[in-house]
Automatic annotation (TrEMBL):
Compositional bias per record (Pro residues), positions renumbered to this chain: 609-635
Classification via InterPro entries: Collagen
Highest taxon above the source species: Bacteria
Source lineage: Bacteria, Bacillati, Actinomycetota, Actinomycetes, Pseudonocardiales
Low complexity bias locations: 594-607, 642-651
Region entry Disordered, spans: 565-668
Name of the protein described by the UniProt record: Collagen triple helix repeat-containing protein
């Protein structure tokens, strides 16, 4: 036999994804025994990488020889060097190899190998700025992806990679090698994961034999398209499970008989594979009537969603045929469909590292490639858990507040625009003001903006003044830290801009006398009282008449002051001649006319324009600075050539007499 692994659990791709989503749903509501819990909101409040994001739709796909873990991300990030919120939207994924590790209860758990931060692929994460139609710069894109990589990996992807990808039959008492000596089941000597990318199958192969081959040849047990989980056991694997049940007194039951309930218990039992439809069962069955030795073939299968087990007993065992059939059927049910049910047989599966269990109906039982294989149809759950928290979008309104208007020609009219939010989301906010025609984006990105418009300085005709001035378009886009956009628009006209202005002290309503005078400002742009004569002018214009080119408004005559220099008035009229006097004499001279009244004080003229800048001043003279410090000594020069030999000096004085010789003379 090529495959020496005793227990095999094979899963389709949709079951693997369903297991992952079941664990995610449970992790949202309570903490599981995972390494780190997951969070629905990924955020960072660091001033150097302020970001906030939601993730949704986690999925697992086959990517060649690896498994790809992907999720959809939507959020925003705020670079520290600008006051804008960038939007990041797209898919991130990482590829990893599945492996087997042990849970706290020593169950085999299939997860992706521990990933690294560099394994997270961010190429499909699109970065944009919703305040304009221009794409984000390369620097902004690099910054956003780097900020997202760090937070998404530590808060989401690493936890998703550590989630279970397999389920185990509850009746299969297997465990990996425990760290302590306590053994709670059949100790596995080998457990490995095999991927079949073509069929999208994931197979967990386990063995309790120390000499098992390290190579598992992929076998497709899921021949039925309606089944999504297959459990296969070799005869050796079935015998190990039966021996474990007999040792712990779990191979017991009760059979109904005319005499009443008959308890039974298997002392020992083994099976062997005969052909494609039968096994040979040998064992000792203990019951109230004694001990029965069973040694007969057993035919097994499924028919009309019912498990059929028929021992082929000899004539010597006919007396206890019902008891033996009941005991053999209970053994097979205990291994392959242990959920008590009156209808179709069902089996319970557990997801390691969690307390999640799933009951699946059994759809087939057959022999294939040396394995006793059972088919199951695990129900796929509806995952209604909301992974994304619904943060409200910004709902801005604009408050218009005139702050610096003037009725003097040439002076700008200033209006402050303030944004207010009716609903608050994830701050800080980015205020993108588009003002003007063509609209231009303001650079401050704050909650307020100022509009300044200069009034006309020339006298214009009445028809031109009565035309409505072109409004100023204002569009506000408020972007929160999640990249959500709230937008509102408005238009500014001069009557609307000046509607909230207080009345000037020069108006007739303030108690001053009004005299119509000629003025060059544009009347409709200033909220001032209009005389009856102006209304008459408008009526004549509507009738087709033409009267002048000047616009009038009220001008105030302030009270005289002692320190005010006034202008002399005009000369009064001549008096009337006197009546003829008596006796033909001329009459008295006429009385002198009264002096003319003082004329009104002239209004203050507008501020003159700023004069041109004066000529540059002469260059300044500075005294010379102190002398600098002496420079460092230069390097030592090379040795010069050898000079010529000098002249011979004079003869020196005679030296002293030397000491006597040391030799002794010999006389002759």
């Amino acid at each position: 036999m090529l495959n020496e692994h005793d227990f095999v659990v094979q899963l389709r791709h949709e079951v693997i994804s369903d297991i992952q989503l079941r664990v995610v749903d449970q992790s949202i509501t309570r903490r599981t025994v995972l390494t780190s819990p997951i969070t629905r909101v990924v955020h960072s409040h660091s001033p150097f990488s302020r970001m906030r994001a939601h993730w949704d739709k986690p999925r697992l796909e086959f990517a060649g020889q690896k498994l790809r873990l992907a999720t959809t991300v939507r959020g925003g990030v705020r670079p520290p060097w600008k006051r804008v919120n960038l939007t990041a939207d797209g898919t991130v994924h990482l590829d990893g190899m599945p492996g087997v590790r042990s849970t706290r209860r020593n169950l085999p758990l299939v997860t992706l190998a521990r990933p690294k931060r560099s394994d997270l692929v961010m190429d499909e994460l699109e970065v944009s700025y919703q305040g304009t139609d221009k794409p984000a710069s390369r620097l902004d894109t690099m910054f956003a992806r780097r900020a997202y990589r760090r937070r998404l990996f530590s808060r989401v992807m690493r936890s998703l990679a550590g989630m279970p990808l397999n389920c185990l039959p509850e009746s299969l008492p297997v465990c990996l090698k425990p760290k302590d000596r306590a053994v709670g089941g059949l100790v596995l000597s080998d457990a490995r994961v095999v991927r079949d990318s073509a069929r999208k199958l994931l197979t967990l192969a386990m063995s309790t034999t120390c000499g098992a081959s390290s190579i598992f040849y992929p076998v497709n047990f899921l021949l039925d398209a309606t089944a999504n989980v297959a459990v296969g056991l070799t005869p050796a694997g079935v015998n190990r499970v039966l021996a474990w049940l007999c040792e712990r007194g779990l191979a017991t039951g009760t059979a109904e008989s005319p005499q009443g309930p008959l308890p039974w218990r298997w002392r020992e039992v083994t099976v062997a594979l005969l052909d494609d439809q039968r096994i040979h069962l040998t064992g000792s069955l203990e019951h109230p009537g004694g001990l029965t030795i069973v040694d007969s073939p057993v035919r097994m299968g499924m028919a009309q969603s019912k498990l059929l087990v028929r021992p082929e007993l000899s004539s010597a065992d006919n007396a206890g045929e019902e008891l033996i059939t009941e005991a053999v059927t209970a053994l097979i049910r205990r291994i392959f469909c242990d959920v008590p049910a009156d209808g179709e047989p069902r089996h319970r599966f557990v997801i390691p590292a969690t307390d999640i269990t799933v009951d699946a109906p059994m759809t087939g039982l057959f022999f294939y490639d040396g394995y006793l294989v059972a088919h199951y149809q695990v129900p796929l759950a509806r995952h209604d858990t909301m992974l994304t928290i619904a943060d409200p979008k910004p709902a801005p309104t604009i408050e218009i507040e005139p702050t610096g208007p003037s009725d003097v020609p040439g002076v700008p009219v200033t209006v402050r625009l303030t944004a207010h939010l009716r609903s608050y989301g994830a701050g800080p906010y980015d205020y993108a003001w588009w003002i003007g025609d063509p609209p231009r984006l303001r650079r401050n990105h704050g909650a307020t903006a100022t509009v300044r418009k200069v009034a006309l300085t020339e006298a214009v005709s009445v028809p031109a003044v009565l035309d409505s001035p072109k409004p100023i378009a204002v569009t506000l886009k408020v972007i929160d830290l999640l990249g959500q956009v709230g937008e509102t628009t408005t238009e500014l006209t001069y009557p609307a801009m000046l509607a909230a202005l207080p009345k000037t002290p020069d108006s007739p309503d303030a108690g001053h006398s009004a005299v119509p005078v000629q003025h060059s400002a544009v009347a409709p742009m200033l909220k001032l009282p209009i005389t009856t004569a102006a209304v008459a002018v408008a009526g004549l214009l509507a009738a087709g008449g033409v009267i002048g080119t000047a616009i009038t408004k009220y001008a105030s005559v302030p009270a005289s002051r002692a320190d005010t220099v006034t202008v002399p008035g005009p000369t009064g009229d001549h008096g009337t001649p006197g009546s003829p006097g008596a006796s033909g004499r001329p009459g008295d001279a006429g009385a002198t006319g009264s002096a003319g009244s003082v004329g009104p004080q002239g209004s203050v003229g507008p501020t003159g324009p700023t004069g041109p800048p004066g000529p540059p001043g002469p260059p300044g003279t500075c005294p010379p600075g102190p002398p600098g410090p002496p420079g460092p000594a230069g390097p030592q020069g090379p040795t010069g050539p050898q000079g010529p030999t000098g002249q011979r000096g004079p003869t020196g004085p005679t030296g002293p007499v030397g000491p006597p010789g040391g030799g002794s003379g010999q006389s002759t």
